[in-house]
Specification:
Order of helices and strands of chain A: HHHHHHHHH
Largest interface: A-B, 81 and 82 residues
Largest sheet of chain A: none
Oligomer: homodimer
Chain lengths: ~200, ~200
DNA sequence: TTTAAAATCTAACACTGTTAGGCAAAATTA
DNA sequence: TAATTTTGCCTAACAGTGTTAGATTTTAAA
C-alpha cells in the first residue's frame, strides 16, 4: 500500500543520495579520494549499507558512467534543436560533446578513463618536452614562410596531437581493435593536416 | 675506491630493478595491481627498502613517465632518419608516436593518464551507444549518396571523435587552459571534416 | 676485536573494499 | 495484544594498501 510505496521511495532516495554523494566527493577531492566510508559518512550511514544498493564500488562507477551517457545524449539533443541544417546540427552536437566534457568533467573522466596524472607534469623536466619540440620544429619547417607564426604552428601541432592521441585513447580504453579503420583515420588525418599546412 | 664503486653500482642496479619490476607487474596485472609490497617481493626485499630509492610510490610513477618520454623521443628520432623530405619525416614521427603508444602501452598510460575503464563497457547498455548513434546518423545524413557506405561513415565518425576526444583529454590531463587555441583547433577540425564529407 | 655505520627487517598506523554476525526496531502473524 | 518473523543498520573483522619508526642484523672502520 501507501507504506510500501513510501518505503520504496525512501530506498530510491537513498540510492540517489549515494550517487550524488559520490559525485560530490569526486568534485571536491578527485576520484582518488572516493571511498565507501566517505560516501557513507555523507549520507549518514555506515559503509555496509551501501552494499544493499550497489553490489560493489565498481557498480557505483558504472552507474555514474551510465548517467553520464544519458546526460550527454540529452545535451546533444538540445544542441541539435538549435540548428536547422544538418551540417549545423552536426557541428552543434560535437560542440555540445565538447562542452559536456568540461561542464561534467568528473562524469567524462569516469566514462572515458581520463585520469589526472599522478603529480604536476610541469616540473619542467626537459625530457617531457622533447617529443613535442621535435614535432613542433618539423611542422615549422614545412610551414610556408608567409604563414609561419607561433600561433599557426601551435594550432597545427595541437590538431595533429589531438587526432593521434584521441585515436590512441579510444583504442586503449575501448579495447575494440579495428586495425584497418585506425590506419585509414590516421592516414587521412595526417595527410590532410600536412596538406592544409603546405597549401 | 673499488668497493665504493661496486656499492654504487649495486644501488643503481636495485633502483633499476625496482623500475623494471614495477613495469613487469603492470604488464602482467595492470596498473591497479601495482603495490609497494609486490614490487619488493619481485626484487627479494621488503617494502620499506624501496623508500631508500624512491621517496614514495608517485616518484616511481614519475620516473616511469620520464623514461617513457625518453623512449618516445628515441623512437621518433629513429623514424625521422628513415625519410628525407620534411613531410615524410613529420608523418614518420607521428606514426612512431602512434606505434609507441601500443608497443609501450603501460608507459603511454602513465604518461597521459589513460586508464582502462572499471569494467567492460560492452555490457551492451543501450545508453552507452546513444550519443554515438546520434552523431553517426547525422554524418550519414550529410554524406552524398555516392559515398554513403558503412565504412566511410565509420571512418568519418572516428575522425571526428578522435580530434574532439583527444583535445578534451589533453585539456583534462595537462591542465593548460588555452581557450582560444582550443576553439580554433576544434573549429578547424570540425569544419574541415564536414567539408571533406560534403565534397 | 671492538666500535661505528650501513642495510634490512618487523611492527605498526591509518587507510582501503568487502563480508559475517549480531542487535534492535518494525511488520506480520496468531 | 503477544509471539514471531522480517528488515534495517551497526560493529568487528579480514586482507589488502602506502608509509614510518624502531629494532636488529650485517658490513666496514678503528
Amino acid at each position: 500500500m501507501s507504506s510500501k510505496d513510501r518505503i520504496q521511495k525512501i530506498k530510491e532516495d537513498t540510492r540517489h543520495n549515494i550517487l550524488r554523494a559520490s559525485l560530490d566527493i569526486v568534485k571536491e577531492e578527485g576520484w582518488g579520494a572516493l571511498s565507501m566510508r566517505k560516501i557513507a559518512d555523507k549520507i549518514d550511514y555506515t559503509a555496509p549499507v551501501i552494499y544493499e544498493y550497489f553490489s560493489n564500488k565498481d557498480a557505483i562507477l558504472k552507474e555514474l558512467t551510465r548517467i553520464g551517457y544519458v546526460k550527454l545524449a540529452g545535451k546533444m539533443e538540445e544542441a541539435r534543436e538549435l540548428s536547422t541544417t544538418p551540417e549545423g546540427q552536426l557541428e552543434a552536437m560535437w560542440l555540445a560533446y565538447w562542452h559536456f566534457a568540461f561542464a561534467y568533467k568528473e562524469l567524462y573522466q569516469v566514462m572515458y578513463g581520463v585520469e589526472m596524472n599522478c603529480c604536476s607534469i610541469e616540473n619542467s623536466c626537459p625530457d617531457y618536452v622533447r617529443p613535442m619540440n621535435m614535432l613542433w620544429d618539423k611542422i615549422e619547417e614545412i610551414t610556408p614562410a608567409e604563414k609561419r607564426s607561433e600561433e599557426y604552428i601551435d594550432r597545427k601541432y595541437y590538431s595533429f596531437w589531438s587526432v593521434v592521441h584521441g585515436l590512441i585513447s579510444i583504442n586503449l580504453t575501448n579495447q575494440i581493435n579495428r586495425d584497418e579503420l585506425n590506419r585509414e583515420v590516421l592516414k587521412d588525418a595526417i595527410s590532410g593536416l600536412i596538406n592544409s599546412i603546405k597549401n
